[in-house]
Amino acid sequence: MASAADATVTADGRPKYILAVDIGSTTMRCFAVDANAKFVASAVQPIDTQLPAPGHVELDPEMLWSRFVTVVKDAMKSADIAADQVSSLGIATARGTFTSWHRETGEVLHPFISWQDTRSAELAKSWNKSFFFRALAGSSRVLHTVTQANRFLAMALIEFKAYHMCIRCQWVLQNIPRAQDLANQGQLMFGTIDTYLVWRLSGGKVHATDASNASATALYDSFSMSWSTPCCKLMGVPRDSLPRVCDTSSHICTCDEDIFGGPIEVHCVVADQQSAAFGQMCWNSKQIKCTIGTGSFVDVATSSPHASGSGFVPLVGWRIGGDVTFLAEGHSASAGNCIEWARQMGWFEDVTKTSEMAQSVEDSGGVCFVPAFSGIESPVKDANACCSVFGLTPATKREHLVRALLEALAFRISQLVEVAESELHVHFEAIRVDGGVSRNDFLLQTIADLTGCKVMRVENLETTAMGVAFFSGLSTGFFKSKDEFHDKVRFTDTFSRKPENSARLLAARTLWEKAVDRSRGWYKR
Questions:
Q1: Which end is more exposed in the chain, N or C (fewer Cβ atoms within 10 Å of the end residue's Cβ)?
Q2: What residues have CB less than 8 Å from 102, skipping those under 6 apart?
Q3: How far apart are the C-alpha atoms of 206 and 333, rounded to whole Å?
Q4: 88 - beta bridge partners?
Q5: What is the rounded distance in angstroms from the CA atom of residue 338 to the CA atom of residue 406?
Q6: Is 197 a residue whose pLDDT tops 50?
Q7: Which residue(s) pair with 189 in the sheet?
Q8: Is the pLDDT of residue 112 over 50?
Q9: pLDDT the model gives residue 4
């Protein structure tokens, strides 16, 4: 028999598990995780995206809720466990996708508006060009010069984008009359995916998020660790419409027992990239993680919000027991989506063969690929850049094209690593990588050759779910401390710099930077 305080087994000795849910842009996965941090069962459900108008990207709230319940139940069935064997449930979500609803009746006012949605692009541009914004930036620069406080530097560098939730919230208030009416009555509730699910799981009793998700809305002040009253007033968003901000690792709510057959407790909600960083054990500024999936995300832990002139974003990484770890994040929106486009264009048939194809030729044959389907982010920062291919000749083969593509992804990641090293005044000995594209050996070797860092591929690429399990388990005592994780996270492959490759790659990157320069501002012409 187990003691009543044992979080890893039931009172009658049956093992307990953590259910870790990872909700992405196209799929959601649920994993049953045991006390050794092993994934013993899993389930997956698709996420259907709606495109009702140009620039509009939406998700049906009922579809999302139904499939969330299904994926959790399927994972429980696959693991052959009952509700009383679930130590806790944790949820990681893609950031910034949100909806709104009636506080009393639960009436949902509109579909989830995805982080990929660009309907508010013109609204963002108008704010950035406004006299108020220019005056704010100018006065903040003066205050930063006088005080050297990062808070003022961050304010001076603010530039709204369509993916910022605050801009899309203002769009909702301006274009959905019912939302503004409820806001005036104090009956409006905004929520990202995690908040909406918690509200549904709790039977409408809990309206909450965590600090990592809140910090990605542009409505949250990471310096004061609270919703920003000035920003809320600027956007017309009532503060009482926003959720309570909890610790990332804490008791969030208890699920209505009718949903899963028992009262399962939720002990973590967290943003996806922050969860992946925690799951890779990137807990201080000497460690850097790079997730290479649809896009590439580089994250470094910092002790305070990092204000960057190069486009790195200051985020809350996680908050545990009131202690906050921040992240400096740079990203490239184009990575795996470029590979999928190339497959559809016939450059290759099997993505697993692309590493071999790239290595079969000595170089790219002078071909340069610019991965910019959504412009180019830090440090170039040009939303009007175009995706392009330069240097084609009659001798160009598919292998040259594939190599040029993979080298371009490595060039972008090396740029982000260089910015992080320069701004944070640190040299990284190793880059910890995850994500589906990180299976490509040629890409990882090229990153190592360019940066001089070891590139370490984690054994379990589902690091977002692993981070969720760690956060949730720390809250319940399923895991006793972070020290346990050093034996539970393993790196199976390490790529080290090959000096004979570096000079040639640096020359290739110089040529590629010329191609990037030619691609800039394309959509303004």
A1: C
A2: 109, 182, 187, 188, 189
A3: 34
A4: 18
A5: 9
A6: yes
A7: 101
A8: yes
A9: 41
